[in-house]
Here is the input.
Amino acid sequence: MAISLSGIKPTGKLTLGNYIGALRNFKAMQEDYENFIFIADLHALTLPIDPIELKTNTLDIVAFYLAAGLDPEKTTIFLQSDVSEHSELNSIIQNYLYMGELSRMTQFKDKSRKLNDSAIGLGLFAYPALMCADIILYNADIVPVGEDQKQHVELCRNLVHRFNTRYGKEIFKMPEPVIPKVGARIMSLSDPTKKMSKSDPKGDIFLKDDLNIIRKKIMSAVTDTGNEILFDKENKPGISNLLTIYSALKNKTIEESVQEFSNLHQYGEFKKMVANAVLDELGPFQTRYKEIISNRKYINEVLEKGAIRAKKIAHKTLIKVKKTVGLYVHE
Ligand code: AMP
Ligand code: TRP
Here is the structure.
């Protein structure tokens, strides 16, 4: 069975963008792939974070995974920091990535621009190296992510090629990023030219927002002055974003949704339908989340079992890499 792997880092509050761009697709993979889904808690340390917040976010994401329908019998759910092989492999493969290519990463440029040079941590710069270790430890064939993570997976593909060429064999499998056809980049409701991002609360729908608040946020989403419901990212970014949200949640193509609304010349009515689609999805999701988050024993069990399963595979890869590069491994 082919292998799918992905993760989310536990910083900030998860948004509808995370749900549509990532979470939902993690669940879709578990039927057809051997599925590894983790919480990238080591990655969360790449920018300063309060320890209590980190822990709370981590538990929340486990509960979100389960509430989104990940089944621990089918998907290995674990914490990155529980499997020390991630850090060990990272310290080997970071030598095969170059400063030049790391400094061209959009995420690094965006995040470091907001900081003083003296406050940019080495981990933020080396972020994609650890992410690559995450992927190759499990021989992932596919990596379902939103658009913003594609560049990191592509860098990992370069590393795989470089490493395999250097050692003359197929040590690592070549991973493929899988980006959703609809919803790879959900935009902010207050500024539809910006990504909906968990570190920027304006215009975000948070997965834990009260349902009434979610409805209000959608009803007051920024649109244009027209009244036609058309997909045109340039001239109608707000309406296009709402069409994307609606289509993704209803499993429709954009064309199908545009067709559905072709006789509706009222943004207000359209927004109501988008809000209903979001609430139909997030209402039951929130109920499941609340049940799971109050059952800490269950969460612990899932993580313990997941870490054992993940470690078995990760350890095998690490030994293989150590042997390949010439580190002494006791036989
Ligand atoms: P992050 O919030 O950056 O940790 O991202 C976690 C996952 O959600 C990654 O796969 C992202 O690509 C995806 N993601 C984050 N924000 C969005 C968004 N606004 N639209 C679609 N996918 C997103
Ligand atoms: N960088 C990803 C994010 O911010 C999280 C992540 C870490 C990840 N390691 C990964 C995603 C490996 C896919 C595969 O969302």
Summary: The chain has a mean pLDDT of 95. Residues 190 and 222 are 5 Å apart (CA to CA). The radius of gyration is 21 Å. The beta strands are 3-8, 34-39, 75-79, 142-144, 176-178.
